[in-house]
Amino acid sequence: MTDRLITHLRHVDLAVPDFDAQLAFYTDTWGLRTEHTDSGLAFLAAEGSPEQYAVRLRRAADKRIDLLAFGVATRADVDVIAERLGADGVRLITEPGPLHTPGGGYGFRFFDNEGRTVEVSADVAVRKHRTIEEGESIPVRLSHVVINSADPEATRAFYEKHLGFALSDTLLHPHLGKMMWFMRVNAWHHSVAIARGPHPSLHHASFEMRGIDEYLRGTGRVLRAGVEKIWGPGRHTAGNNTFSYFLDPSGNTMEYTTELELIDEDTWHPHLYDFTQPEIADQWGIANQMNEFVAQRSFNDPDKGLYLAPPV
C-alpha cells in the first residue's frame, strides 16, 4: 500500500447561484442541519457525523465545486503532504496554517491535476453529534463524492501518487472501455470515485443512511417532496451499497445510500465489472435502467471553478 496520510473525506463545498433554494432543499428536504452561517455561506452538518459540516454552500454567480476536503491525523502530516506536493510541482493555493472555518484546525489548499481545489486538514474540532435512531431517515455522514474527469486516467494517477488513494474496483463498458474508478483512503470501499466525462464537474455526492429502512424512508420522503429522481432505488455491485439519485435545485446529483462495503485492505483485489450487465448496475433489478438520459444528467454542467480558488 502507498504511504497514505489521508484518513477520510471531510466535506464537499458547493458554489450555487440559487443559494436560498439550495439551503431550503438541503435542510428541509434532504435532512442536513444548518450548524453555522455567515454572509452568503451556510455550513450544513449530518446529524450523525463528528465532522463540523458535510456540505458548505456559498452564494455565487457561477455553479461550481468550491473544494473537496480531506482529513489527516496530525499537523505534521499536513506539512508532509504540502512539502511533497510542492516538491512535485503541484500548485499550492495556500501554505499550511490555521483554518478560519467552523472547527478551526490546521491545513492548506492546492489544485489537483484538472484544477479542482482540494483542502487537507488536521486538528479540526469534533462536532457534538448523536446516534441516529431507528426510523430516522436523515443522513448519518457524507459517504463519498464522485467527480467527472475529462482525463480520468491522469486524475486517478494524481490521487494515487499525491494522496495515497488505492483502487478498489473499476467499471467497464465493452465498447467504451473503462468508465469509473472507485478509490479509497480507508477500509470503506470508496471515498472518491472518478468517472469518465466530457468535462470536469461534480458527478454526485452521496450520504450514508442508518440502514435499509431509513434509506427507503428517506427515498420516499424526497420523492413525496416532488424532487426529481434520476436513478434508483437499487443496490450496486461495486461497493455493494444501495442507491437513490436525485437532482438538487442547481442540477447537482445527490445520493442516498447505505451499507457501503467495508473491505480488508490487506487481501482485497480490485474487480473489473462490466456495468452493461444488469446485476452490476443494480443487484436487485428494481431500479430504472441506466441509459443516456441518466448518464447525461450525471455529467452535470462544466465546472467554472477550475484553477480558480474559492474566495473563502
From TrEMBL:
- Protein name (database record): Oxidoreductase
Taking the record's annotation, the residue ranges forming a coiled coil are: none
Give every VOC domain span.
Answer: 8-123, 141-259
Record's PROSITE patterns?
VOC
Cross-referenced Pfam families: Glyoxalase
